[in-house]
Amino acid sequence: MSILSLENITYGYIDGNSKRTILNELSYTFEKGKFYTILGPSGSGKTTLLAIAGGLEKTQQGKVCYENKDINEIGLGKYRRNYLSFVFQQFNLIPYLTAVENVVNVMEITDNDVPKPYYKTALNLLHQFGIVQTKAERSIFKLSGGEQQRVAIARGLATNVAVILADEPTGNLDTGTEREIIKIFRLLATQYNKCVIVVTHSDDIASLSDVQLKLEGGRLVERM
């Protein structure tokens, strides 16, 4: 089922005395229940594309639609709060909160229905991703990089959103942990029916996705 569509997206910036276009009338439709990866060389616009899809950056031409509705009509704040979640390379967890408190925090600000009590729901969710209660109640600085990324993914799921966007989410992890995290992303798509879109530079990660996309000439091309 179609969930997120990019329609004739164009984006560029001034480089010296000339304008460089990195996204050129780009169009693509993403579906629920699929795990996508987006590949491309540094500077090709992968992160910018993800930011536009997530409502963090405005397009210069074209539009982003969620369930066929322009996200500007939804309201960018509401869109980011209720319809999608980001998972970053640096985790972006709140440093003075415990792991479980980081998850509870997003539950408290969403407009979506989340089972109460939030603390118990957050603990159960973290447990599904291998973070037991004793670790969930620790400072995030006492968790490994892989564990922090699992917390970040659990936080992304905690608000019952349909779309998960991830920007180089395994860039700071060792190969073994990277594989474990990618298996979680596959699980989110296949068992939780989420639309998962991961920006990566790794062909190994891309090979594990349902759909491999390459950002080429400012447009997304499916790799066969």
From TrEMBL:
One Pfam family in the UniProt entry: ABC_tran
CDD domains with a match to the protein in the record: ABC_MJ0796_LolCDE_FtsE
Record's keyword annotation contains Cytoplasm: no
Gene3D superfamilies, A to Z: P-loop containing nucleotide triphosphate hydrolases
Keywords: ATP-binding, Nucleotide-binding, Transport
Domain of life: Bacteria
GO molecular function: ATP binding; ATP hydrolysis activity
ABC transporter domain mapped to chain residues: 4-224
Family in the record: Belongs to the ABC transporter superfamily.
Record-given protein name: ABC transporter ATP-binding protein
Lineage: Bacteria, Bacillati, Bacillota, Clostridia, Lachnospirales
